[in-house]
């Protein structure tokens, strides 16, 4: 019996379903990780995998990045948690604001879900209205306001609205189709109580779905015309798409932005930032309450400072390298699947890609769900046998990191070739 199988059996006795997050489970059991370094991850049986999950996008710079570990080690010698303000929090906030000009002020917190929850609360506090518009398939965390027709593990497990969620809360969440401006305009015209619109500018929790031309600019225009705060959930895309996230890439300035994941390259931290007239509503100065014992903890803050400084220092080489790798890889993968006459679509941008087994372009949640999930599971299992780890769900994204080399990509393409053969058969 493998160590992972035994550990999973033990884990199920003490942890619901044996995992601490639904996205980590896959049949018949997930492997348990022993260590990681650079572009690689090892399970408890010492099997090495090339890691293309990268903590669901958090590890833009790869595992155990030296600059970040050095910074954290230095901070560890000074303490782990103070629950008082620190100078490093100001330094980090200035770095974030420097990369995201749409923000006048920023508050640090812990998780992406906490950041989006606070962003929505801010929008409601600012407008004194109740309803939030989200887009089908976008995932903004596991709290009631946004856990409605969401992506990620919620979509993978077929949960449209979570049990235990309050109808009184979810009824104030209006869901429209991603990439469908007409649907948005119609919803806004029928509802005068819209507090905000929240969106993943690049949908990365339904597989990878890109915004169609003018979708984001039209979204910005419509929300401005109707005095509705626009929230960009850049938990995934922040720093990963560009140093200033998707908003820099597309030239759009939202009113509120949420960040997490690549902000600290693997340490627990998130942030919400935006216009000062909105951000100043946060307590204690304002009446929108948000608080956390671990917010701005010096360990994560030191990691985030180092992460942003490293990204900014090498940004020209970093993003061009990842884009070049992704273009080469996605093109080669497309050629292989075409040669094998396997119906497929490949969506890719920056350092993210996903393959869907379907004839039709994948442009929203509905077209994503029509892709052949069973074929994707075959692909995933074969890749794992070949020593390549990607997220186990069709509704996630494959992530490149700076640690990946051309040799890693070539080995991974060989693994995908075998995986596509298994799908064809």
Automatic annotation (TrEMBL):
- Which locations, inside or outside the cell, does it occupy? Cytoplasm
Q: Which reaction does it catalyse?
A: (S)-4-amino-5-oxopentanoate = 5-aminolevulinate
| Family matches, as InterPro entries | 4pyrrol_synth_GluAld_NH2Trfase, Aminotrans_3, Aminotrans_3_PPA_site, PyrdxlP-dep_Trfase, PyrdxlP-dep_Trfase_major, PyrdxlP-dep_Trfase_small
- Report the domain of life of the source organism: Archaea
Enzyme nomenclature, EC number: 5.4.3.8
Q: Where does it mainly reside? A: cytoplasm
Residues bearing the modification N6-(pyridoxal phosphate)lysine: 261
Q: Name one GO molecular function term.
A: transaminase activity
Pfam family name, one: Aminotran_3
Annotated keywords: Cytoplasm, Isomerase, Porphyrin biosynthesis, Pyridoxal phosphate
State the needed cofactors, names only.
Answer: pyridoxal 5'-phosphate
Pathway participation: Porphyrin-containing compound metabolism; protoporphyrin-IX biosynthesis; 5-aminolevulinate from L-glutamyl-tRNA(Glu): step 2/2
> What processes does the entry annotate via GO biological process terms?
protoporphyrinogen IX biosynthetic process
- Cellular-component GO terms for this entry: cytoplasm
Q: Which family does it belong to?
A: Belongs to the class-III pyridoxal-phosphate-dependent aminotransferase family. HemL subfamily.
Q: Which PANTHER family does the entry link to?
A: GLUTAMATE-1-SEMIALDEHYDE 2,1-AMINOMUTASE, GLUTAMATE-1-SEMIALDEHYDE 2,1-AMINOMUTASE 1, CHLOROPLASTIC-RELATED
> What NCBIfam families does the record point to?
hemL, PRK00062.1
Q: What protein am I looking at? A: Glutamate-1-semialdehyde 2,1-aminomutase
Species per Swiss-Prot/TrEMBL record = Candidatus Nitrosomarinus catalinensis
């Amino acid at each position: 019996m493998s160590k992972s199988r035994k550990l999973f059996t033990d884990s199920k006795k003490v942890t619901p379903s044996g995992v601490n997050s639904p996205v980590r489970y896959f049949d018949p059991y997930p492997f348990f990780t022993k260590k990681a370094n650079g572009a690689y991850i090892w399970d408890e049986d010492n099997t090495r995998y090339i890691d293309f999950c990268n903590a669901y996008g958090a590890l833009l710079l790869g595992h155990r990045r030296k600059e970040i570990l050095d910074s954290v080690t230095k901070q560890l010698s000074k303490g782990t948690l103070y629950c008082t303000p620190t100078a490093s929090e100001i330094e980090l906030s200035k770095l974030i604001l420097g990369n995201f000009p749409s923000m006048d002020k920023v508050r640090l917190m812990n998780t992406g879900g906490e950041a989006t929850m606070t962003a929505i609360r801010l929008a409601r506090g600012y407008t004194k209205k109740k309803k939030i518009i989200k887009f089908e398939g976008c995932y903004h965390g596991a709290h009631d306001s946004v856990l409605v027709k969401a992506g990620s593990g919620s979509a993978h497990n077929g949960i449209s609205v979570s049990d235990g969620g309050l109808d009184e809360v979810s009824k104030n969440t209006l869901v429209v189709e991603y990439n469908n401006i007409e649907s948005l305009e119609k919803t806004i015209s029928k509802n005068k109580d819209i507090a905000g619109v929240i969106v993943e500018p690049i949908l990365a929790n339904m597989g990878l779905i890109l915004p169609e031309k003018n979708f984001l600019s039209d979204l910005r225009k419509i929300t401005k015309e109707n005095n509705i705060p626009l929230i960009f959930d850049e938990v995934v895309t922040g720093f990963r798409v560009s140093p200033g996230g998707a908003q820099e890439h597309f030239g759009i300035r939202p009113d509120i932005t949420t960040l997490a994941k690549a902000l600290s390259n693997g340490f627990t931290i998130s942030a919400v930032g935006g216009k000062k007239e909105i951000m100043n509503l946060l307590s204690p100065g304002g009446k929108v309450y948000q608080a956390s014992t671990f917010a701005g903890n010096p360990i994560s803050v030191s990691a985030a400072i180092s992460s942003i400084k490293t990204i900014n220092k090498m940004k020209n080489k970093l993003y061009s390298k990842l884009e070049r790798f992704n273009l080469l890889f996605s093109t080669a993968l497309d050629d292989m699947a075409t040669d094998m006459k396997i119906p497929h679509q490949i969506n890719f941008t920056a350092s993210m890609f996903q393959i869907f087994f379907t004839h039709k372009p994948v442009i929203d949640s509905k077209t994503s769900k029509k892709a052949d999930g069973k074929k994707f599971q075959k692909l995933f299992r074969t890749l794992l046998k070949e020593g390549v780890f990607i997220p186990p769900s069709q509704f996630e994204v494959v992530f490149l990191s700076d640690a990946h080399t051309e040799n890693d990509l070539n080995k991974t393409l060989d693994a995908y070739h075998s995986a596509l053969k298994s799908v064809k058969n």
